[in-house]
Each structure stands twice: as structure tokens, then as C-alpha cells.
Amino acid sequence: MDATELCFTPATELGRLIAARELSPVELAEAALARIDRLNPVLNAYLTVTADLARAQAEFDSVLLDYKEKGHRVELVGKETDEGHAVYHLRVTRKGGEVQQYFLDADTGIERKITSTLKGPAGETATATIEFGDFREVNGLMAPFTIKNILDGRLISQVTVSKVEFNVPVDDTLFQMPSK
After folding, report:
1. pLDDT class for 53, splitting at 50, 70, 90?
2. Planar angle of CA 3, 7, 69, nearest 5 degrees
3. Could you read off the pLDDT of 119-147 as tens digits, one per residue?
4. CA-to-CA distance for 130 and 20, rounded, in angstroms?
5. CA–CA separation, 118 and 129 (whole Å)
6. Where in the chain is the domain with CATH 2.50.20.10?
7. Does residue 89 have a pLDDT over 90?
8. Residues near 33 by Cβ (< 8 Å), separated by ≥ 6?
9. Cβ distance 126 to 152 under 8 Å?
10. In three state form, how does the secondary structure of the chain look?
11. Residue 147 near residue 158, CB atoms below 8 Å
């Protein structure tokens, strides 16, 4: 299946392909980015395309999982305190060179905060931080019920989760394009 076909494949089929490991989320992101590269000069639909960030975020699992196989490098910066919590500060250099700072709870190993430097088209930079909080146990797993997105120290968005369920059946019709 080529990049254009992937971009028009229903989400239910993409989900099946990803679950069957016939398609990776990174390959899907690459297909979308290739289409944007091809069409945006004509359509001018995107002001800024953050391709590196899209590739990085396409990995559904933690960057720390199988990091060597993915081509990433992880360095322990040290043990620190962050907002009253003891954390391990890790510097993660992704395969493509992007550097992120990960702060893991020293007691549980859970990711509490991730910081990245974003680069704009004119070379300007901004610091993006994702903070995870209000962890609760759900079916034996810890889940964050609060997620904050911060840009250059300013709160951009906060998600407060009211309920977490795992492996709940979802009707495929929710992912189909509406009829005209």
C-alpha cells in the first residue's frame, strides 16, 4: 500500500494493520508527512509542519521501551526533586537527534514529566513540557488522570480524565466517514 492509499484507508483498517504489526504508527506518520510535503506547496494548508515531532509522537509505546532497538540513546542525568517528588532525570536522544528530558518518579518509575525543545520554521525555539499527575490504579495499572501541556512556562491545555477503561470493545462505525 503506498502513502496515498494509507492516507485514505479507514481508521478501523489502519488499526487492524497496526495491531497485526503489518503497519507501524511511524510508517503511517511518514505517509501523512509525505502527502503534506507533496500537496502543501500548492494548497498552503499548513503554516508550520513539525515533522520531527510527528515522527516522535507516532511511537505509541514509551520511547524508553526497547530504546536501543529503536536507535535511541538514554543517559542518566541524575536524581533530582521535581515539585516535591524525587525523580530520575533522563536525557533521551532519539534516533533522529531530537533530545528530550524525561523525569521518572524515583519510587515507581512512572513518567511524571517530559520536556522537549521545539524548532519553528524560522529557527525559533520553544520549550514544550507534558506533565502527568493524579495517578490512580486502574486494573492493576497506574494511569494519569491529569495531563498538562505547557509551552515556554505557560499552561496551554489541561486534560482531566474522569474514567479510564482498558480493552473495552469499540464499535467500528465510530471510525467510519459520515455519509454525505
Report:
1. confident
2. 60
3. 877 888 999 999 999 999 999 999 999 99
4. 30
5. 10
6. 71-162
7. yes
8. 49, 51, 54, 55
9. yes
10. CCHHHHHCCCHHHHHHHHHCCCCCHHHHHHHHHHHHHHHHHHHCCCCCCCHHHHHHHCCCCCCCCCHHHHCCEEEEEEEEEECCEEEEEEEEECCCCCEEEEEEECCCCCEEEEEEEEECCCCCEEEEEEEEEEEEEECCEEEEEEEEEEECCEEEEEEECCCCCCCCCCCHHHHCCCCC
11. yes
Nearest to 27 by CA among 55, 50, 69: 55
pLDDT of residue 100: 93
Residue 160 identity (one-letter amino acid): T
Considering the domain delimited by 71-162, tell me its CATH architecture.
Clam (2.50)
CA distance to 46, 53, 120, 177, per residue, from 35 (Å): 12, 16, 20, 20
Q: What is the pLDDT of residue 158?
A: 96
Residue 102 has pLDDT above 90, yes or no: yes
Round the average pLDDT of the chain to a whole number and report it.
89
Extract the C-alpha cell encoding 161.
Answer: 480524565
Q: Beta-carbon neighbour count of residue 132 at 10 Å?
A: 19
Q: What are phi and psi of 125, to 5 degrees?
A: -125, 155
